[in-house]
Amino acid sequence: MKELIQNILDLAKLKKVDYADIRVVRRQVQEIEVKNGNVEALTHDEDMGFGIRILFKGAWGFACSSKIRKKEMEDVFGKALKIARASSKARGEEILFVSRPPEIDRFKTSIAVDPFSIPLERKVDLLLSCDDIMRRHKKVKISEAFMGSYETEKTFASTEGSFIEQEIVECGAGIAATAIEGGEVQVRSYPNSFRGNFATRGYEWIESLALLEHAERVAEEAAQLLMAKSCPSKVTTVILDSSQLALQIHESIGHPVELDRILGTEASYAGTSFVKLEMVGSFRYGSPIVNIVADATFPGGLGTFGYDDEGVKAQRVPIIAQGILVNLLTSRETARHLGKESNGTMRADGWNRIPLIRMTNINLEPGEWTLEGMVADTEEGLLLSTNRSWSIDDKRINFQFGTEIGWEIKGGKIGEMVKNPTYTGITPQFWNSCDAIGNRDHWQMWGTPNCGKGEPGQVAHVGHGAAPARFRNVQVGVMK
Amino acid sequence: MIGRERSIPLLRKIVQQSSADQTEAVLLTEDSSLTRFTQSAIHQHVAERNGTLILRVVLGKRIAVVTTNLLKYSSLRDSLQKATSLAEVQRPNEAFISLPEPKPIPDVDTFSKKIDRLTPERKVRIIRDLFSIVRGKGLHVSGAFSHGKVELAVVNSLGVEAYQRYSDLFFHLIAENEMGSGYSSFVSRDPDQLDIDSLAREAIEKVSKGEPTEIGPGEYEVILEPYAVSELISFLGYLGFHALAVQEGRSFFCEEFGKKMVDEKVTIYDDGLDPEGLQVPFDFEGIPKQKVTFFEEGVARGVTYDSFTAAREGKSSTGHALIAPNTEGPIPINLFMKGGESSLEEMIRSVRKGIYVTRFHYINVVEPMKAVLTGMTRDGTFLIEDGEIKRPVKNLRFTESVLRALSRVSAVSRDRRVCSEGTVYSRRFVTGVVAPAIKIDGFNFSGVSAL
């Protein structure tokens, strides 16, 4: 493989391109999906190929193929060069790609137990057992359990002399119960909705989730939701649990601070951002207790890696400090707009996609509160848990979320359950209304394995650390 | 492109070598390119060649799926072995009866050789033409221009042998200035149909001529362009128009068949063979597409089936299987809404005070059984007063039951268009929704953008 890669880099030098890199990526995926007592999906997916990115006359060209052969690689190189040459005739400002010292390194996710080494029967048994417990509740009409194991091996090499090999292992699992009665559908899940919680860890992560211990509660709560009263429509105080807060961070902080969106290169699909370059250093994004870091080094985070897909080492970077926007997620091409170097966030969804600025682990730093103390300190409001739906505009400023479940808070105590909770807000107003954040005991990482962006579409695996937090004057009950 | 002559024998050979009771091999190849631009400059231009084999093996009632893009014959044999060993540890699914038997596939031409004329240079020339048009109006433009060739081949051990090659092209753009933006898009299997002048004109006409003003949330009459309509009915397809959603009791159609659910001006169906849409003659099980009507003059009629969901009810597949393993259900991908009697101009003239919506952004489900969705308007939202488009307004968030909205349809346009964002996650297979513009007498906007 090394020879095939070197052949392309030699070709790049021969053709006098400004810069070129090649990524060879092999990915294997094993997924098990159980529904209503049946293993509805038992799949193994193997995918391999290479992509060549060329900077020529100030424009990018990228081509890729699944056939890893010398002739095909040379053809694909030629295609990428042709594309870059054609694109240079309609490019904007010349791309300035400041050279970097070469990186020669290996990175491997630290795991205790390889998830692919666990017998399938054991995994299936676990999921079916959870499914069985949930289905015992007569109001549960759909019971689901999921487990996924992922391994990515990638080799990155560039004309700058970098040669980086990485092996990233991820896994995750979750369960969900859907209760249906009288034309109403209610869902509860654990540890998170939309298939569970994911991490760059081995099978020890799946075991730590203790899925079986939560199956009965999940089924019971789904059934209880059918009888619960509807979320009221009013402006009130809201406490978000850490899983819902993770998605709130994702949508209303993570995406808006992607510098490619700010510069407009996602305008035609995912949208742009209300954040402008000139806001960095002065814009009050949130209240003074809001501190956000982008941390690609956090052990176990789903957005944790060794190097990004343009050879920049993983970093931990403050994004919001004491409520003030202090940095953005950047790449080698875009960081110069801030007068900085890349903070290493360029990642591609496999060999057949170009790297884009993607979230790493975008974490809300813990505060000082216990959850109990936060509730006790709240005269009236709602505690909302587990995402059910999300929507945000193309500038990332007007959002609306729904959660699976909520509880009233009255006089500093948790009260009745409410169903179909929704809340809506304007991003900076919302984050400036944050007046309490849970402490480290309540803080945990959430893996988001379905972050969509780009054309052709790319799905990124990203992480968010959060503890429950309280927000004042929030509009809830939007469906009314 | 591998071609029918090579792909079918390859799949046949794999299926024949399988020791499983039943085996299905699906080959999906792609040769594509996508060019993106923003601020009237190209910033991304990519090309891809890939081929994926999806193997489904059945041992009794135990099913497993292996997917690979390592298409060397030796690798494919390994994948077959892998699939069989997975099936051996699988549990029987008692609801499974059989993979489908073959049925005649209609002869439909879904490929234009002209797609090969779209070289990188030619695509860049077309995009530069667009830049010139837009610059002439003092605007700039973002968008994407993609084209591709896709092959789908399906062979199973019961005799199904189906092959189809597809060409596709999509072009979508947003023209904008500091005050606002306008959208247009085009999708076709025939590159000759691309008319960049009219596409540019359509988007340019939407760009704000003045600062957008804020209009408060509330219920308004709305005119939804086909782009917006296509997004809403696609969600209905996902939530309720297919057999799995009904069988699981999570479709709004449950207990409602034969009843009038929406206005009689609403007829929605799926038809993979209608040449007005992007034709798809057979599904991912190699079964021919049948026309399925969901709403006929407002009355709930039917849903789509794949072989699995059909067998549960003793019925035949309607040809709506998606790529295995599919736990979401046989979601329809060739949706149509029947056109009406009105022109768009007549519809606008009939509005006393309302909102004109070009398209939506980031729609998601709030309450599935009532088809309550939320999303934002984007790229061309206007206030209509006394039958005229008066001025641009700030984008609005809607939170509304699509069923409730469709029960308030008071006019449907004669003209329809094929709508597709063309955005491709994972494997390329471009389809579209054919939709008219509609007028709804009461549509709930729950919030306003701060910008």
Description:
Chain A is an alpha+beta fold. Chain A folds into two domains: 2-227, PmbA/TldD fold (2-Layer Sandwich); 230-476, no CATH class. Chain A has helices at 2-14, 70-87, 120-135, 203-209, 211-227, 242-254, 259-263, 371-376, 427-432, and strands spanning 19-35, 38-56, 59-65, 104-108, 140-158, 163-181, 184-190, 197-199, 229-230, 234-240, 292-295, 316-321, 324-325, 346-347, 356-357, 362-364, 380-392, 398-410, 413-419, 422-426, 434-437, 444-453, 458-466, 469-476. In chain A, strands 1, 2, 3, 4, 5, 6, 7 and 8 form an eight-stranded mixed beta sheet that branches. Chain A has a five-stranded mixed barrel with strand order 10-17-18-20-24. In chain A, a hairpin with a 2-residue loop joins strand 12 and strand 13 (324-325). In chain A, helix 3 runs parallel beside helix 5. The model of chain A has no long low-confidence stretch (mean pLDDT 96). By secondary structure, chain B is α+β, with helices and mostly antiparallel strands. Chain B folds into two domains: 4-206, PmbA/TldD fold, CATH 3.30.2290; 218-448, no CATH class. Helices cover 21% and strands 38% of the residues of chain B. Chain B has a six-stranded antiparallel beta sheet. Chain B has a five-stranded mixed beta barrel with strand order 7-12-13-15-17. In chain B, strands 10-9-8-11 form a four-stranded antiparallel beta sheet, covered by helices on one side. Chain B is globular. The model of chain B has no long low-confidence stretch (mean pLDDT 95). Chains A and B meet through strand 2, strand 3, helix 2, helix 3 and strand 17 of A and strand 1, strand 2, strand 3, helix 2 and helix 3 of B.
